[in-house]
Amino acid sequence: MNFLAHIYLSGEDQGITIGNFIADGIKGKKYLSYSKDMQKGILLHRSIDSFTDQHPVVRKSTKRLHKNHGHYSGVIVDIFYDHFLAKNWDSYHHKPLNEYASEFYKLLEKNQEILPHKIKSMMPIMISNNWLLSYTTIAGINTILEQMSRRVKHTNNMNIACVDLEKYYKEFEQDFTVFFEELRAYSKHKIKSL
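RE: above sequence
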């Protein structure tokens, strides 16, 4: 899953939310240097990633992309799934997405001093381009994939992945809907067990 899903799956706890958001930049046992709630968020993120990578519905989605995108299929599906979460946001959360995103950005700004350097440098770009809200449109997803394509060292076709999104739109949305229900239940249980 990508940023929006990870933030959403953290629930209402701000420490868990920040931990889940920064987790990709925290390697190995370095998570132990953070507060207990942030540690939970980092561990939750890792569990969500493992659950997602091994799930048969997600594998069905990535299989549609293998021919054109190979190794990057999983990354692309994560972005596509964030699109369907954003597009159907009202089914998942009582707050409008623009308000939810704005509150999250304020949370990041309030906690800047504890964020890893990579997140601190990315944060102004994320906020000024309102990445979380941009997930609602295919054009927004396309922009994000184009940016990712340029940042990756190896040759890739992520910049044209929206062609596949439009071609298999219904199938990807059905996959997301089935999978996300299971992931929501899994995440709630995982938070309680951490």
